[in-house]
Amino acid sequence: MSALSDINQYLAGEKLPHLWCPGCGHGLILKQMLLSLAELKIPREKTVLASGIGCSGRAGDYVNLHRFQGTHGRTLAFATGIHLSNPELTVVCLMGDGDCGAIGLSHLIHAARRNISLTAIVANNLNYGMTGGQYSSSTPEASYTSTSRLGKAGDALDLCRLAAEAGADYVARSTVYHIHEAQKFILAALRTKGFSLVEIMTPCPTYYGRYNKLGGAVDMVDWLKKRAVSIDRYNGMEKEEQPHYFWRGVLVQRDNPDFLTRYHRRMVSQ
Ligand SMILES: Cc1ncc(C[n+]2csc(CCOP(=O)(O)OP(=O)(O)O)c2C)c(N)n1
Ligand code: SF4
């Protein structure tokens, strides 16, 4: 793996220290993303970090890259425009589960369906951190949040399965506990020509952890370690058991033509 110093070129050091709460996983995800850019030697002038609104969206404040922060939920739509206007750029989208999987869900489906050449990283902390810990579409059933005081009713949405079904070329999930695995997945995503999604389960000790009495930051990371199981193990579980766990691993890896390739084919066939 690259030396930590390699990521300094991508960091806006003067903006540090960051604003995330102690024990929040967003900083680790940003670090692994920057390490992956360094590993692949992607020049900062050729990289755009598109982020959303939310605690995770603050990542854009700390990078010395081209950056774009759009309205809540629209990161993938803006990023699609950035990619199509200059396909030379590596466009990475860093979003929260609320941003990508609730208000912005239709953009995820269509970016995956069109297999747009973007790398999407979703920091899934199982709630809306920035606005006070409301439940999101990814919040597991029975979880306590500021908007589900009796426990959330209804299943959690599996963003990865949705993106894979819609047509994404690469889809994987890991956790901040399995941070080296997460980086491996980010590297594979960055190498993917079409649409890639890496979901990283991450602690929000301030809200999700507190509402669900999961303890402090270290306890939450330990909780993620215990709850994240291999895809095979997850698939072998009883239906009632599954909501208490998250699968982790690579869900799909394929090499279908991306949107621009298909677009250019249409042009030459006219
Ligand atoms: C159009 C619009 N609707 C709602 C909001 C309020 N809002 C800001 S951040 C956010 C949710 C953030 O949650 P998530 O994307 O999961 O990121 P996190 O803060 O947990 O990292 C919401 C609902 C907004 N800024 N804009
Ligand atoms: S509220 Fe949660 S997601 Fe936001 S910075 Fe704090 S720990 Fe992180």
Task: Give an overview in words.
The protein is α/β, with parallel strands linked by helices and 270 residues long. It has one domain: Thiamin diphosphate (ThDP)-binding fold, Pyr/PP domains (Rossmann fold), CATH 3.40.50. The chain contains 10 helices and 10 strands. The chain has an 8-stranded mixed sheet, sandwiched between helices. Helix 4 packs parallel to helix 5. The model has no long low-confidence stretch (mean pLDDT 96). Iron/sulfur cluster binds next to helix 7.
The biggest sheet, with number of strands, parallel, antiparallel or mixed sense and barrel status, is: 8 strands, mixed
Order of helices and strands: HEEHEHHEEEHEHEHHEHEH
Look at the helices and sheets and give the structural class.
Answer: alpha/beta
Q: What percent of residues adopt helix (DSSP H or I)? A: 25-40%
Q: Give the domain tally.
A: 1
Features:
270 residues; alpha/beta; Rossmann fold; eight-stranded mixed β-sheet; two-stranded antiparallel ribbon; 35% helix; globular; binds thiamine diphosphate; binds iron/sulfur cluster
Summarize this entry quickly.
This protein is an alpha/beta fold and 270 residues long.
Outline the fold blueprint.
Elements: H1 26-39, E1 47-51, E2 66-69, H2 75-85, E3 90-96, H3 97-103, H4 105-113, E4 119-124, E5 127-128, E6 134-135, H5 159-166, E7 170-175, H6 179-191, E8 196-201, H7 205-211, H8 217-227, E9 228-230, H9 231-235, E10 246-253, H10 259-268
Parallel strand pairs: 1-2, 1-3, 3-4, 4-8, 7-8, 9-10
Antiparallel strand pairs: 5-6, 7-10
Helix pairs in contact: 1-6, 3-4, 4-5
